[in-house]
């Protein structure tokens, strides 16, 4: 269970929202809780939010909310500085939690960069580095997974960061949530689904809408990638298709597992 870091006593806790390599969709999704947003903002001092103001980030704050993957040395320095100043760090969205879409370039950054920019990347790109999640650079206290995030889950996590919570982090695979929703398995009709290895906790929203899981919540600690590949092959699908689908949001974790001697 994450260690609770309580905000400063007295004044409302100061919160900053930092955007790194991402589409900023998770930040935008926070504003989709219009009916409750003012209640949330009324409990905090929103000291910095790139989407709402061009004011510089303050020197001191209680909570740092970070969206996006770390893809440059400048971003890594920003994350480290935020960790030093903040009492609590919250990573939101797949890019910040797993490396997300930017993480697909982690295996061969030079090749991907050359494919996009040619001989040299623009100076505006800064000093690029292999994309990684925020947790690969600094300790993260809380994570809000998925692409995009569920704004109500973000509120629950922010509440836990500010006031404490005994809620346990989900670790099981998504298949269990599908069964509780009484949703049939996609593999039965030959449709590839990543719920076999994806972390639960989202309520299996995509399968409930008739869409297979794309793995945006990240790999479950209880998942078995090798066994999932076997299931895919047994269902008449190419294992390569499974690997390509899984890499869309989990390339960083898969590369790390390969370096350690295989994907379980």
Please explain how this structure is put together.
- The protein is α/β, with parallel strands linked by helices and 264 residues long.
- Helix content is 36%, strand content 12%.
- The chain has ten helices and seven strands.
- The chain has helices at residues 25-30, 34-41, 73-85, 93-98, 109-117, 151-163, 175-180, 205-208, 225-234, 239-259, and strands at 14-19, 45-49, 63-67, 70-72, 88-92, 128-132, 142-144.
- The strands form two sheets. It has a five-stranded parallel sheet with strand order 2-1-3-5-7, sandwiched between helices. Strands 4-6 form a two-stranded antiparallel sheet.
- The protein is globular.
- It starts with 13 loop residues before the first strand and ends in a 5-residue tail after the last helix.
- Residues 1-8 have low confidence and may be disordered.
Task: List the uncertain runs.
Answer: 1-8
Tell me about the largest β-sheet.
Answer: 5 strands, parallel
Q: Count up the helices.
A: 10
Strand content: 5-15%
- Give the proportion of residues in helices: 25-40%
Structural class: alpha/beta
Mean pLDDT, all residues: 90
Total beta-strand segments: 7
Order of helices and strands: EHHEEEHEHHEEHHHHH
**Span of the ends, CA to CA:** 24 Å
Strand order of the largest sheet: 2-1-3-5-7
- Dominant shape: globular
């Amino acid at each position: 269970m994450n260690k609770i870091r309580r905000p400063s006593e007295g004044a409302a806790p100061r919160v900053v929202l930092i955007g790194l390599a991402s589409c900023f969709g998770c930040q935008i999704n926070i504003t989709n809780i219009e009916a409750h947003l003012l209640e949330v903002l009324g409990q905090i001092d929103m000291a910095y939010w790139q989407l709402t103001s061009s004011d510089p980030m303050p020197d001191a704050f209680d909570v740092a909310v970070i969206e996006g993957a770390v893809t440059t040395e400048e971003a890594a320095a920003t994350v480290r500085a935020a960790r030093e100043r903040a009492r609590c760090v919250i990573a939101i969205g797949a890019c910040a939690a797993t490396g997300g879409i930017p993480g697909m370039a982690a295996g061969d950054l030079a090749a991907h960069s050359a494919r996009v920019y040619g001989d040299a990347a623009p100076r505006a790109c800064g000093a690029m580095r292999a994309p990684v999640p925020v947790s690969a650079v600094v300790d993260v206290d809380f994570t809000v997974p998925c692409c995009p995030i569920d704004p109500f889950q973000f509120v629950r996590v922010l509440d836990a960061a500010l006031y404490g919570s005994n809620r346990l982090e989900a670790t099981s695979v998504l298949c269990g949530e599908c069964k509780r929703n009484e949703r049939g398995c996609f593999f039965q009709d030959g449709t590839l689904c990543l719920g076999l290895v994806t972390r639960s906790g989202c309520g299996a929203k995509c399968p409930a809408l008739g869409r297979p899981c794309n793995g945006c919540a990240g790999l479950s600690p209880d998942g078995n990638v090798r066994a999932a590949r076997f299931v895919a092959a047994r269902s008449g699908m190419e294992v390569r298709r499974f690997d390509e689908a899984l890499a869309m949001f989990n390339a960083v974790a898969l590369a790390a597992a390969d370096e350690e001697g295989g994907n379980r």
